[in-house]
Amino acid sequence: MTELLRNQGLKRVRMRLFTAVIVVFTLTCSGSFGMEDVVSSSGPGLTLLMIVVLPFIWSVPMAFVASEMGSMIPEAGGSFRWVRRALGEYWSFQSGWWWSLSVFIDSAVYVALALGYIQSQLDLTNWQRWFVGVGIVAVFTFINILGLQLTGWSLTVIQIVVMVPFVLFTIYAFAKGTGAVFTPFMPKGQNIVGSMNLGLAVMMWMYAGWESMSTLAGEIENPQKVIPRALMVATPIVIITYFITVAALIRAGGANNWSSMVSDASSGGTDYIVAAKIVGGAFLGWLMFASAIASNIGLYAGYLATGARPVFQLSRDRLLFRFFGITSKRWGTPWVAILVYGIVNCILISRSFTALIVMDIFLLMFAYILVFISAIVLRIKEPDTPRPFRVPLPTWALTIWVAIPIAIAVFALFTNGSDYLVSGLIGVLSGPIAYLVFKYFYHGTTDRALEGATITPEGELTQFGAEIEGVQA
Amino acid sequence: MKNDAIHKYAALVGVLAGVSAIALAFYIHSAQPKLGPSWHIGVLITSPRLLAAMGVIMIIGGILTLWSPAPGGLLVLVPAVIGLVYCYNHEWTRIPLLKIWATPMLLGWLAGILAGYALAKDIPGYDEPPDYGDVLTED
After folding, report:
1. pTM, 2 dp
2. Predicted ipTM?
3. What's the gap in Å between the CA of A364 and the closest CA on chain B?
4. Distance from CA of A425 to the nearest CA of B (A)
5. Protein fold of A18-445
């Protein structure tokens, strides 16, 4: 009898680079739905410029930092673990709490958006709508419990359904469309800051999610190699996808139609579905409709997978209810955490939760800021710890590079509106409150006791780490 | 009473949060008595009265942190959250209210963080992971 794994009862599966790229693509892009709002608020030229420039100061730093940290600490829970190594138990709890809370809300939003698309065509009653929603949640909860291999396959199929209509749409748009892709640069009578404001918030959202896959590191073979490679391959693919499909949207919309673009065109305006009907007829419109539903379902499936792992890890660190840490002996997945996510999603999709949605962005930004700070702290605290992938910059230059997205995050926090600010702060303050409660009742674990750690706090390879690296401890 | 620095800092900042809330309550009572309409249960809970009440609770929480950081920290943090909920519910005066609540809220947040550190010092973690008996094996 051989021991499969000593990593908390999680089963590592072989994930091909292609599948890993699909997972990253799903978490960070999954089609370009939502970009319509950026076009109408920022103007065609500025939107396309932001699509090219923003990644280098927002998402590429996160992709690189996630690659370095993921290769250095390839453990289940991902960014939650990195923050623990850099800043200790308190801030790792905050990071895990904010991130998990954010994904709890986020994942329900994607199901609600998919249901919105379905309801626009089928006129469902509230109960029918809820049952369809529960069906979607149940299917992907079950797939997630069965393991990452099946989740990866399902995401691959979903992304084919998402992207084939986009490819056809792009061809039709450039062949038949009449809109000017780059003009006007921004809405008439607005300055550049005003034009960027709403567009920036949406686009930061569109370019988020690069750290998410790291939470799955405990269930992938060779995560320190697979995840960084997937991030490096997916980054240009996401940028090119956004650029080409948004350019196609502007072209398909027709002359001067960019200002009427809106992500939900049920009450007028132009979204991807309407634009597809304009250039490709009803059939392409239906394909794009299917793509929109699949896109949101894909995002749901992806975030269900990545969202359950930090909760599981918090429990394994004795900082959350014990039942979240239970794994399936058959499939090697944290099935209770996944199931609880599914149940909460079923409850949330039947209700209006506007206040929760606005809280979401704030929570995620704070979690991102902790990841960036952790990357710098670990460069200083543990300069010699092996990093199979290392951002090719000295620490001082990396500090400047990550300071830019931190500044953008802070800027966005204060410019999104007072409802975002206040409800976001309520969500953020829930972190210190939760820590006081859970630490008091569950006590936590010392750093030395962390199960599944690959490297000790002193930077030495553990027995488990040696197994992963394939060397002697 | 814990006699180390982190407990003292947590208590000091918690008390400061409460004192600032009471001081700001007096300020808006005299300068802007109408700021923030009554909250659900008539004229009793107005912005100054809520601020003053939360300030008193924060001071009690701050002092309690010296003995027990968990309940003390909660007594400082929860009023800060109640203040934010109050600001969120008053859409038309949200920004002026937020300017008033910002100082006690930020100090309360800082006191909560320090209380968390104090609690971590009081309660060391277990030296072993929880046992779920879930080592996976195969033949």
Report:
1. 0.88
2. 0.92
3. 18
4. 8
5. Amino acid/polyamine transporter I (1.20.1740)
